[in-house]
Design brief:
single chain; mainly alpha; globular
């Protein structure tokens, strides 16, 4: 776990350095993103879903590969075909795509986050989401989210047709991209603080019950057999007690509620920044969705499309504090990020950490890699 805490701590240290010398912000950010890439994108025997992805990738050429088009997203399978055709083994293909996704996100934060808050934004991103998502990626979900990030400019330009095309492409990688039209609509709304507060209360009343969530989704997608199957699986099927369940409350959600209040109070301040209105709206949408994701864990998949705006919005709030007190506010966020990451990493999926660079000369067998964390993790009994 130390390597994950180190990554957050070094980012925060870079923020402290840049606080006293702003000319170094971009240089330190480039150094930090390179270091993060080496640790996060080259993670090896950590995570869980890579086992399935490797089996799918290596099945190309067998009779059962193309049968997978009946239940897996076609864009994802097309990437598998391309990787095999050009002669990449699974890990070469997998890491190349992870690195591309990673730098799409880093570039997005670089362009849309205010310069002064960039490194504290990256600290928040790593601690609360980034490390977890890159060490144990929902890979198809991440591919779809990266497409949506590339298409963010079409929200800014209000280009509905091109954004629709982006949505269709993202859907070819993961069905969760059905969320993208809501992002577009919510980003352009101008809802008063009073109405946002009322919506917040309503959401926390209705969506505190997972049954309410599934009933609403069932009514919205009653004509889609695929969605009906998913609802049955998560509500009463084999995954109903895992990703189909959740919590009523958590410390992270209380933190989100605290940020919600701060965002409403400081809305005019955020709107002064370039793209401030969109950042504010989508950070609010993230907080609304966090209630649903807390109740039913599978809906945390939607976070990947909007969590960046939450990180940017929080980092902008630091700039509202007096210059002499900004380090205090940033330190609080650093502590929250470390605590959040520490709680997330208490799983066999993350501990122990391994890096493929150390195994390039002799890649272990699939069985060895698959069992490694399950055998060696101090959290193996928490399966």
């Amino acid at each position: 776990m130390g390597i994950y805490i180190f990554l957050i701590a070094i980012t925060f240290l870079f923020y402290i350095i840049s606080y006293f010398n702003e000319k170094l912000i971009y240089k330190l950010y480039f150094i930090e993103t390179f270091l993060s890439c080496l640790i996060l994108c080259f993670g090896f025997m950590t995570g869980s879903d890579w086992r399935t992805y490797e089996e799918i990738y290596n099945s190309y050429g067998n009779n059962d590969f193309f049968w997978r088009f009946s239940y897996l997203e076609p864009g994802y399978l097309l990437l598998n075909i391309i990787g095999n055709v050009i002669g990449l083994n699974f890990w070469e293909w997998y890491i190349i795509l992870r690195v591309i996704i990673f730098f799409i996100v880093c570039k997005f934060l670089f362009f849309y986050c205010p310069r002064k808050s960039l490194l504290i934004c990256y600290t928040i991103f790593l601690g609360m989401w980034g490390i977890m998502y890159y060490i144990d990626p929902s890979f198809r979900n991440m591919l779809a989210a990266s497409v949506s990030i590339i298409g963010f400019k079409y929200i800014i330009n209000r280009n509905k047709i091109k954004y629709l095309i982006v949505t269709i492409i993202a859907l070819s990688f993961h069905f969760s991209a059905i969320f993208l039209p809501l992002i577009y609509v919510f980003s352009i709304l101008n809802i008063s603080n009073t109405k946002l507060l009322i919506i917040f209360v309503i959401i926390n009343i209705i969506f505190i019950s997972k049954n309410s969530i599934f009933i609403i989704i069932d009514n919205l997608f009653s004509n889609l057999e695929f969605v009906q199957g998913k609802i049955e699986n998560y509500s009463s099927g084999r995954e109903s007690d895992t990703v189909g369940s959740g919590k009523i409350i958590s410390i992270t959600y209380l933190f989100n509620c605290f940020i919600f209040v701060l965002l409403l109070v400081n809305r005019e301040f955020l709107n002064k920044f370039k793209y401030g209105k969109i950042i504010f709206n989508l950070a609010i949408l993230y907080i609304f969705m966090s209630r649903i994701g807390l109740t039913v864990l599978i809906f945390t998949r939607f976070y990947l499309y909007i969590l960046y705006f939450m990180a940017i919005a929080i980092s902008i709030l630091v700039l509202k504090i007096k210059r002499t007190q900004q380090i205090i506010g940033a330190t609080f966020l650093f502590i929250v990020s470390v605590i959040s990451n520490y709680k997330q990493m208490q799983s066999w999926r993350f501990i122990p950490y391994s890096n493929i660079i150390l195994y390039l000369d002799n890649l272990p067998s699939f069985e060895y890699r698959s069992d490694y964390n399950l055998i060696n993790s101090p959290y193996k009994d928490n399966l």
